[in-house]
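Collaborator request, handled under Task 6.
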Amino acid sequence: MSELTSDPAELADELQSVVGALVRRMRAASPRRAISLTQVSILKRLDRDGPATVADLARADKIRHQSATTAAATLIERALIRRTTDPTDLRRKLLELTPAGRALLTERREAGSGALADLLDERMTPAERARVSEALALLRRLID
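Structure tokens returned to the collaborator:
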């Protein structure tokens, strides 16, 4: 998109393209550990929302229960999450983040944020960074 536009369809297309490229760049800056996007999503959700069942995670991420079960099993095997008993319903099993899982998320966030901060510093003027900050406030309204 070389010209500014206010057409919602064009904006949506360009926004999707730019956000996708930004996400790929952030992933490239993250530590190289064999972990799938589904697994990262589960770790992030457990970090943000606390313990959850596999079914809760599958519903939240809009993935098949089997996919969430497979991803969770790998994370358990790697000691990034653990299975616990729900104290309010002893029949239910909850998944929760372990200290190793939290450390992995922190490492990924710091690597990605650091790389992005460097790009913002190197490629944008202070005035441009202020405009990005203003745009972020508008973009947050799309997800709230």
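The cover message to the collaborator said: "The CA atoms of residues 80 and 99 lie 7 Å apart. The longest strand covers residues 89-97. Please let us know whether this matches your experimental observations."
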